[in-house]
Amino acid sequence: MTKTVDVAIIGGGIMGCSTAFQLAKRGVNVAVIEKNSIGAGPTGHSSAIIRQHYSNELTARMALYGLRVFQNFEEDVGGECGYTATGFLALIANADASGLEMNIALQQSVGIDASILSTDALKEMMPSLASTDLIKAAYEPESGYADPYLTVNAYAQAARRHGAAFLLDTKVTGVRFADGKVVGVDTTAGAVDAPIIINATGAWAAETAALADISLPITSSRVQVSLFRRPAGEEKAHPVIADFIHALYFRSETGGLTLVGLIDPAEADAIVDPDNFGKGVSDDFVLESGERLIKRYPAMELSQSTGGYASLYAITPDWHPIIDELPAGSGFYTCSGFSGHGFKLSPAVGLMMADLVMKVEEPLFDAKMFRYGRFADNDPITSKYEYSIVG
Ligand SMILES: Cc1cc2nc3c(=O)[nH]c(=O)nc-3n(C[C@H](O)[C@H](O)[C@H](O)COP(=O)(O)OP(=O)(O)OC[C@H]3O[C@@H](n4cnc5c(N)ncnc54)[C@H](O)[C@@H]3O)c2cc1C
Fold first, then answer.
1. Does residue 336's CB lie within 6 angstroms of at least one atom of ligand 1?
2. 121: CATH
3. Closest to 391 measured CA to CA, from 326, 337, 334, 311
């Protein structure tokens, strides 16, 4: 039997669930259609770092909004998100020093608690960090990380409490239009009719858009994460560190572990089939990430590798999402392509999407910057650093 809703969201990752929560809270009849289970895609494997370090006012404001939600999660959403405030350090090369200063000024101007640390202050904060090659570092005391699986499931539960329906193990196989407007989707469990459809399928977004004859510049790229057990004397949790000099990030993980990933634009090149890629970590990656880690955190020479895993980034040409109605006036919306940094923005994205589809006149977060047309207009979103992933 055909199900009829006001809004059908394709994808039960963090963007689909956060958007469903925001819409259901306003009394909108929403269904989330997920081909697997909630958070089973890249969301569940996210490093879930919550930092405010962004180069654009909009993304900085969105990150701050997200931080406040993670800090008050039980009250704002309900349930647990596992927010852990360890502080965040950005370590920048000499060439990027002026970018760092501009970023900090921007963050402070929107109310973010961020400041520049001298190398002496850095040494005092984390004596085991190698810092002789550093000129300056940025520090955010309130930043840290969350548990992505807990978070996405808490959002789904909260949306359910407000009446949202979840169709799990259900794949969208077609998108139907009539007179240029979307009217529904076909799924492996029957038809769902809706005048508004949101494509929140992340690394599958281009495949989903193709069902509607839309071409999206979003790739599905394989990324890896490794884990190391910290040696005796280093048991205490350390801040989240983004080391742009060695192009890696690392944060504490439960069980005395340190989780390591790369901040490397070349990660975009590992394009894979999102339904068929190697989910294990390679020995080469463990070695490479471990070597970079030791350069910044020499005590980890004595650490023990405890493996890792691979997942997917959904990457756009400028490493920022596409949030837009395509084609204009069709009711078919894209909310995908978060390029490896979407988790922390997800509370704000849910609000942005709900305001966008409900045509709120003065939204807190205007989606215009993320419009699809920016690529054709040669107006990509730029970062103050060469590392676009910082946003
Ligand atoms: C290893 C790793 C580390 C990361 N670290 C961070 C970090 O530290 N901080 C940060 O802010 N961000 C981080 N990110 C990025 C962040 O996790 C993502 O931007 C975010 O999770 C994307 O969520 P999403 O909802 O867009 O997509 P997804 O989680 O990919 O969800 C899309 C869903 O759509 C479903 N789907 C696909 N096709 C269909 C279909 N046809 N029908 C029905 N369902 C379908 C999929 O099964 C999937 O569940 C990281 C990502 C990874 C992979």
1. yes
2. 3.30.9.10
3. 337
**Is residue 387 pLDDT above 60, yes or no?**
no
Q: Ligand 1: which of 341, 344, 370 to mutate, most ligand atoms within 8 Å of CB? A: 341
Tens of pLDDT along 108-131? Answer: 999 999 999 988 888 889 999 998
Q: Is 250 in the pocket of ligand 1 (CB under 6 A)?
A: no
Query: Domain boundary residue among 264, 296, 315?
Result: 315
Specify if 298 maps to a domain.
Answer: yes
User: Is the residue at 59 inside a domain?
Assistant: no
**61 in a structural domain:** no
Cβ–Cβ under 8 Å, residues 114 and 140: yes
- Compute φ and ψ for 298, nearest 5 degrees: -55, -30
Give percent above pLDDT 90 in the chain. Answer: 87
Q: Tell how far the Cα of 300 is from the centroid of ligand 1, in angstroms.
A: 30
DSSP of 248-285, one letter per residue? Answer: EEEEEETTTEEEEEE--GGGGG-B-BTTB---SPPHHH
Cβ of residue 340 lying under 6 Å from some atom of ligand 1: yes
pLDDT in tens, 306-331: 999 999 999 999 999 999 999 999 99
- Domain-terminating residue out of 293, 315, 337: 315
Residue nearest to atom 31 of ligand 1 (CA): 13
- Ligand 1 in reach of 200 Cβ (< 6 A): yes
Domain around 203:
3-45+149-217+318-390
Pocket probe mutation, ligand 1, options 34, 172, 335, max atoms within 8 Å of Cβ: 34
Ligand 1 atom with least separation from CA of 171:
42
> Which residues contact residue 128 at a Cβ distance below 8 angstroms, ignoring those fewer than 6 apart?
234, 297, 298, 299
Across 204-212, average pLDDT: 98
Are 254 and 106 found together in one domain? yes
Overall number of domains in the chain: 2
Question: In this structure, is residue 305 part of a structural domain?
Answer: yes
